Amino acid sequence: MDVLQVQAVIVRFGGLRALDDVSIGVGRGEILGIAGPNGSGKTTLLNVINGYYRPSHGRVFFLGRDITGLPPSRVARLGITRVFQGIELFQHGTVLDNVLVGRHPFGKANVLTAMFWLGPAIRDEAYQRQKAEEVLDFLEISRFRDIPVGALPYGVQKLVGLARALAGEPKLLLLDEPASGMNRQEKEDLSRFVLRIKFELAIPMIWIEHDVRLLHDLCDRLVVLNFGRKVAEGAPAQVLSHPEVAALYMGQGTDQDPSLHQRGERSRER
Q1: Do residues 66 and 9 share a domain?
Q2: Do 74 and 1 sit in the same domain of this protein?
Q3: Pairing relation of β-strands 4-13 and 57-62?
Q4: Residue 11 to residues 47, 58, 251, Cα–Cα distance (Å)
Q5: Over the Cα atoms of the chain, what is R_g?
Q6: For 87-112, what is each residue's pLDDT tens digit?
């Protein structure tokens, strides 16, 4: 059974269909890539999954439960966490403080014990910090634990965002362009951690990305959207050879799969 099923989802903004009858499924331990040009509906799809948008039509099922329209806080407590495209972190807070935010759903101290710093609150704080430290160790950023996030390089800040999402103990991880703005070395580090999440933690992922080389190399399946419609789905190599997908990506920069450019050159020669 799929961990997540999105069934025939339509999202309208006035007369615009941001998503038009889109269906996807994510299996256990699978990395599902989502590609497409700007404005194709990729982030809108994630917003539907984790409750920021309620679809005009269609349903979303997570572990067999209908979660359509649930608020983001409820969706997070059920086990869907997200890495955002921008750096949505507390810039003046330390790395550890930011990762502890992801532990919020698991806090067990009540107002009374927290106010007077009683035993249950002390033990709960120690436990949450231990779990946060484990995530920092996993992503190899423990050495930055006491540094304000705003003082860190961009690539490290991106990993802090990933750490916060992992601190929520997800059953499904949503990655919204986590590699955007990264250099090649930072992308290679990110790729290594994504594979560790897959094979060591067995967490399924939905990964939105413009760098289709990353999607080709790391994803089990790939979906391409355009104007809110799903135009191709399947194994990455198969999808990237699809004529409509090749037409979408020809000439869009060096981060794209080189085979798309080669096909474009051959078509122009003809």
Answers
A1: yes
A2: yes
A3: antiparallel
A4: 10, 9, 29
A5: 20
A6: 889 999 999 999 999 998 877 665 55
CA angle 176, 75, 62 (to 5 degrees): 90
Q: How many CB atoms lie within 10 A of CB 94?
A: 17
172-176 and 80-83 strand pairing: parallel
With the C-alpha atoms ordered 206, 211, 216, 218, is the resulting torsion angle positive or negative? negative
Beta carbons of 207 and 85 less than 8 angstroms apart: no
- Note the Cα 211 to chain centre separation in Å: 14
How far does CA 238 lie from the centroid of its chain? 23
100 and 205, same domain (yes or no): no
Q: Decide if pLDDT at 21 tops 60.
A: yes
Looking at the structure of the chain, the number of domains it has is 2
Measured CA to CA in angstroms, residue 213 lies from 175, 191, 218, 255 at distances of 16, 11, 9, 7
As a whole number of Å, the end-to-end CA separation of the chain is: 46
Q: Does residue 141 sit in the same domain as residue 195?
A: no
169, 188, 217 - which closes a domain: 169
Same-domain check for residues 125 and 65: no
Contacts of 36 by beta carbon, 8 Å cutoff, 6+ apart: 42, 224, 225, 226, 248
pTM, full prediction:
0.88
Q: Do 177 and 85 touch, CB atoms closer than 8 A?
A: yes
Q: Which residues contact 210 (CB under 8 A, 6 or more apart)?
A: 35, 177, 180, 255
- Residue 168, Cβ neighbours under 10 Å: how many? 22
Q: Which helix (H) or strand (E) holds 57?
A: strand 57-62
Q: Which residues pair with 62 in a beta bridge?
A: 4, 65
Query: Is residue 154 located within the same domain as residue 192?
Result: no
Summarize the confidence of residues 68-90 as an average pLDDT: 93
